[in-house]
Amino acid sequence: MSTNNLQMVVTDLDGTLLSPQHQISEQDLQSLKMLGKKNVFRVVATGRSLYSVKRVIQDGFPIDYLIFSSGAGIIDWNTNEIVYSQSLNPAEVVIIANLLISRQIDFMIHKPIPENHKFVYSQTRKHNPDFYRRIKLYQQFAKPLTFEPVAFGDACQFIAIIPSEVSVYEWIKNELPDFKVIRTTSPLDGNSIWIEIFPEEVSKGSATEWLCNKLKINQNSVLGIGNDYNDLDLLNWTQHSYVVENAPPDLKQKFEITESNTNNGFTKAVMTKFSV
């Protein structure tokens, strides 16, 4: 396929486009600029909130759109306009909170976009270091849950944090069939499981589809690159899908493999498929 057929590239951020030190290589940066010159839409799709994204990439970073909070929101990077957002209603918040409390699962409830870096937390496990680590990281925005969940109002999402117990993720997913339950590996300790719970229609893949419809871009002309389980919906939707070498083994069995995030994997995926 020639470059002329490529209309959009969607890439995950942490572990895909950025190094462990949250830096982008010069080669990948130049590839983003090259895509822009060729009128290819450049999209970052990340689990980070908008606040968190702006801690690692600055205004002027060469992208066109940012899909954030695992697809709950989309912002036009050049105008800073939020063009799409989803939220849980108060009744849904109660359903999810009561379920997690019944299983004694530590969780956080996040405010609606764009304030979804702020949250309340419910803590029941005596030993959950990664949970404590995230609270400390966002301590200026975090408060303990001291009221009934119904009083929280609308929410962007829940984040439950557990040790590497995949069975708990499967249980939550089975118990909440009317919601989107997304698994991701902790960006803090690289081992714990973060379970994000959103409205049913939220995912990186659904947000990409919405954006393509808005921009009148054909699905066949979109390339996706990721590194973790929260990229699955994106990679299953894009017709040309890659994972970086540092992705989990089961994802590397399912998708084409490019180089690691520390070896210009973004650039090499784009060059391999489209000769950019």
What does this structure look like?
The structure is a single chain. By secondary structure, the protein is α/β, with parallel strands linked by helices. The chain has 2 domains: 3-86 and 202-274, Rossmann fold, CATH 3.40.50.1000; 90-199, Hypothetical Protein, Haloacid Dehalogenase-like Hydrolase, Chain: A, domain 2, CATH 3.30.1240.10. It contains 9 helices and 14 strands. Helix 1 packs parallel to helix 9. The model has no long low-confidence stretch (mean pLDDT 94).
Helix content: 25-40%
β-strand number: 14
Approximate strand percentage: 15-25%
Q: Superfamily at the CATH H level of the largest domain?
A: HAD superfamily/HAD-like
Oligomer category: single chain
The shape is globular
CATH topology of the largest domain: Rossmann fold
Please report the distance between the alpha carbons of the first and last residues.
11 Å
**Which class of secondary structure composition applies to the elements?**
alpha/beta
C-alpha Rg (nearest Å): 18 Å
CATH architecture of the largest domain: 3-Layer(aba) Sandwich
Q: Give the mean pLDDT.
A: 94
Number of helices: 9
Strand order of the largest sheet: 5-4-3-2-1-12-13-14
Q: Profile the largest sheet.
A: 8 strands, mixed
Poorly predicted sequence stretches spanning 5 or more consecutive residues:
none
Q: Which series of helices and strands comes N to C?
A: EHEHEEEHEEHEEHEEHEHEHEH
Q: Please give the domain count.
A: 2
